[in-house]
Each structure stands twice: as structure tokens, then as C-alpha cells.
């Protein structure tokens, strides 16, 4: 207890330096959490439609890199997939790029998604209207987050997709896009008419649900053998492929990870310099403590305790900054999101870097001579 009080007194002796150090560590921790929060948010964004479709298998053209970049396959793939033992239900889906014309004449690139009868693969939450509105003639659903970009004020307004009328029949909520091209939902048949590049006998994906208790892996293997020229992926595999494409092949993920690592490095340097300065300022005190009987191990524990106090204080400040930032980002195209596992991992890594930052101080402490307290 006496050692901890002495360590606290050393830490708080220079208040301005202590506050500056905590702020520096807190900002660095916030930067790390925010960067990984962006990474998680981006992954959730680019895979949202796949995850929320709640299906077991996806049939697509070979080497499809991500959900956004599917290519045409024959509509007969629906019936081929339906004939596989263990399959309960199949539907088609259309995904392609298109051009939205606002009321003021401006053009906006969009991703057009065509939904089959049950609307699976469409919006999972509606701000206004219902998903089934897409089956009305020349009717679409857009996300309320992109109303300004698309020039939409409310339901019932008319716009154009490649010269054809598109009436807004509903507003979805939370359907973000990583490509900055908003998703526009309509029926499968209407999407093909809007697109003009697909024939009536073509679609982009076949989505499949297996019967309860069926072995999804076995159904996938059987389906792959029965459908030539196509690729069959589970939802987890398709999510992973889409995430890898956007995060690695486009370079987005690497940039975020590098920035997060730099944030950890900055926090470690700040903490290391602070601890070393505190140790240097208190060398005489450490010499006296050794002279009166404190062990070297006790002094090392004092420095490690100081590192943890600075680290935990900085982390708490970083969390205080992160919470409002995450709340504000929820209203933007790319939210800050995390998972309990990622959050706890980053907290653990941050604490380890705090302890690592004390190495130089511990080494300097090893050079202290208790006899020097009696000199001069």
C-alpha cells in the first residue's frame, strides 16, 4: 500500500504532464477503436444484403468477386437448383448498375436490385411503406439515408431510370452502400426492363433455402455438380468473399489497419516518454527507496502500476470520445461499429502496449545505485 501511494505521488507530481499524457493516450486509443470500427462498419455495409437475405446458398456466375459485381446467368438455374434434394425454396435476384435521373435533371449512379415474389434479399427494415410495394408497376424503394442524393422528398414522387418512370413506393432504413451508389429496389421483372442489358430469361443470382435438418454442405456439393458453369456458395462463403474483395483487393482494409497500427504506435510512444520522464525525475527517490529496503521488484511493480493507470485513464477517455462518434456516425453511410470480441481484444492489446511502454523506464531503474543517495 505504501509503494502504491508513493507511485501515485510520483505520477501526479507534474499535473500538466499527467493530463497531457492521458489525453494523448486517449486520442490514440480512440483512433485505434475508430479505425477498426470503420473496418467493421464497412464489412457490415458491403455484406448487409447477403447477410439479411437469410438464405442458405447462392448460385452465381463463376469468379463473381462480390455481391455488387454479379453477372448474368440463365433463369433456368432457378429450376435446376430447385430440383436438388434437400432444397425447400429458390428464387431469382437481379443486381446491376443503373442511372437515376433526379427531378432537376442530374444523374446519379445507383445499384438496381430486382426482387422475386417474396421480396427476399430486399430491405429488412422500412422507414415508410412496405417491401411488397416493389411489385406495383414501375415502383421502386430507396433508402431514406440517400434521399438527398437521389432528390427524393417522399413517397409517390416520380423519377426516371434510363428514360423509364420510377415511382418511389417506399423508403427503407439502414441499407447502406460502400460504393457510394445507392441501392434501388424493384421487382425482378421491372428491373430487367429498366436495365435493358439483361434478357427476360436471365438473372444475376439464385437464392436457396434448404429444408429443415438438411445438410447444407451436402446440398451445396450436389447442386454444384448438377449446375454446370455456375458457382454455389454458402451465405458465409459469399459474405467472406465480398468482404475480402472490398477490404483487400480495393485496398480499403489495408489502409484502415495501417492507420490503426500507427495509432497504437503513437500511444505507445507517448506513454513510454511520459513514464521515462517520470522515472528520470524521481531517480533520487528510487535510490532512497532502495536504500531504505524496498526491493527492485517492488520498484518495477510501481512503474508497471503507473503504466496501467495512465493506460486505463487514456482508454476511458478514448471510450468517452468513441461513444458520441459512433452515435453520430449511425446517421452516415459508413457507421462506426464493433463487436464485443473486437472491442475487448483492442482493449487487451492497448493494455499490453502500455506495459511494453514501461520497458525503457524499467531498464533505467536497473541502473539506479542505492549508495548514490549518500553522496553529496
Characterize the structure shown.
This protein is of the alpha+beta class. It has 2 domains: 2-45 and 251-374, no CATH class; 63-228, no CATH class. Helices cover 51% and strands 19% of the residues. It has 12 helices and 12 strands. It has helices at residues 2-12, 15-52, 76-82, 147-150, 188-195, 216-226, 235-249, 252-281, 283-291, 296-329, 340-357, 359-365, and strands at residues 57-61, 73-74, 87-101, 107-115, 126-128, 139-143, 158-161, 164-172, 183-187, 202-203, 205-210, 230-234. The chain has a 6-stranded mixed β-barrel with strand order 3-4-9-6-8-7. Strands 2-10 form a two-stranded antiparallel sheet. β7 (158-161) and β8 form a beta hairpin. It is elongated. The two termini are 31 Å apart. The model has no long low-confidence stretch (mean pLDDT 84).
State the low-pLDDT regions, or none. Answer: none
- Give the oligomeric state of the chains in this entry, treating copies of one chain as homo and distinct chains as hetero: single chain
Rg (C-alpha, Å): 29 Å
Whole-number count of domains: 2
Strand residue content = 15-25%
Major sheet description: 6 strands, mixed, barrel
Described by the principal axes of the CA atoms, the overall outline is elongated
Cα distance, first to last residue?
A: 31 Å
Would you tell me the overall average pLDDT? 84
Query: Secondary-structure element order, as H and E?
Result: HHEEHEEEEHEEEHEEHEHHHHHH
Helix content: 40-55%
Total beta-strand segments: 12
| Structure classification | alpha+beta
By DSSP (H or I, 4+ residues per run), the number of helices equals 12
In what order do the strands lie side by side in the largest sheet? 3-4-9-6-8-7
Amino acid at each position: 500500500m505504501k509503494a502504491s501511494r508513493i507511485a501515485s505521488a510520483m505520477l501526479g507530481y507534474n499535473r500538466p504532464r499527467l493530463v497531457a499524457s492521458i489525453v494523448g493516450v486517449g486520442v490514440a486509443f480512440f483512433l485505434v477503436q475508430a479505425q477498426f470500427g470503420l473496418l467493421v462498419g464497412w464489412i457490415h455495409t458491403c455484406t448487409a444484403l447477403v447477410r439479411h437475405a437469410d438464405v442458405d446458398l447462392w448460385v452465381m456466375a463463376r469468379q463473381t468477386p462480390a455481391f455488387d459485381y454479379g453477372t448474368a446467368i440463365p433463369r433456368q438455374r432457378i429450376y435446376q437448383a430447385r430440383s436438388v434434394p434437400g432444397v425447400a425454396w429458390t428464387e431469382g435476384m437481379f443486381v446491376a448498375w443503373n442511372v437515376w435521373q433526379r427531378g432537376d435533371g442530374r444523374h446519379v449512379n445507383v445499384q438496381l436490385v430486382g426482387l422475386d415474389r417474396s421480396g427476399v434479399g430486399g430491405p429488412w427494415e422500412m422507414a415508410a411503406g412496405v417491401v411488397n410495394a416493389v411489385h406495383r408497376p414501375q415502383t421502386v424503394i430507396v433508402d431514406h439515408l440517400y434521399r438527398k442524393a437521389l432528390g427524393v422528398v417522399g413517397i409517390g414522387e416520380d423519377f426516371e431510370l434510363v428514360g423509364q418512370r420510377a415511382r418511389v413506393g417506399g423508403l427503407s432504413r439502414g441499407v447502406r452502400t460502400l460504393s457510394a451508389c445507392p441501392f434501388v429496389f424493384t421487382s425482378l421483372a421491372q428491373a430487367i426492363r429498366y436495365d435493358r442489358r439483361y434478357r427476360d430469361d436471365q438473372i444475376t443470382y439464385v437464392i436457396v433455402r434448404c429444408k429443415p435438418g438438411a445438410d447444407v454442405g451436402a446440398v451445396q456439393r450436389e447442386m454444384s455438380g448438377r449446375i454446370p458453369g455456375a458457382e454455389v456458395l454458402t451465405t458465409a462463403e459469399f459474405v467472406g468473399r465480398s468482404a475480402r474483395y472490398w477490404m483487400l483487393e480495393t485496398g480499403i482494409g489495408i489502409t484502415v489497419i495501417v492507420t490503426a497500427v500507427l495509432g497504437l504506435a503513437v500511444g505507445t510512444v507517448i506513454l513510454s516518454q511520459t513514464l521515462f520522464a517520470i522515472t528520470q525525475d524521481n531517480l533520487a527517490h528510487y535510490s532512497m527507496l532502495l536504500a531504505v529496503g524496498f526491493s527492485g521488484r517492488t520498484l518495477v511493480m510501481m512503474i508497471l502500476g503507473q503504466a496501467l493507470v495512465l493506460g486505463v485513464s487514456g482508454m476511458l477517455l478514448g471510450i468517452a470520445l468513441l461513444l458520441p462518434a459512433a452515435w453520430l456516425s449511425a446517421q452516415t453511410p459508413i457507421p462506426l461499429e464493433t463487436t464485443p470480441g473486437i472491442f475487448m481484444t483492442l482493449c487487451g492489446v492497448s493494455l499490453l502496449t502500455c506495459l511494453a511502454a514501461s520497458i525503457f523506464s524499467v531498464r533505467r531503474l536497473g541502473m539506479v545505485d542505492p549508495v548514490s543517495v549518500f553522496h553529496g
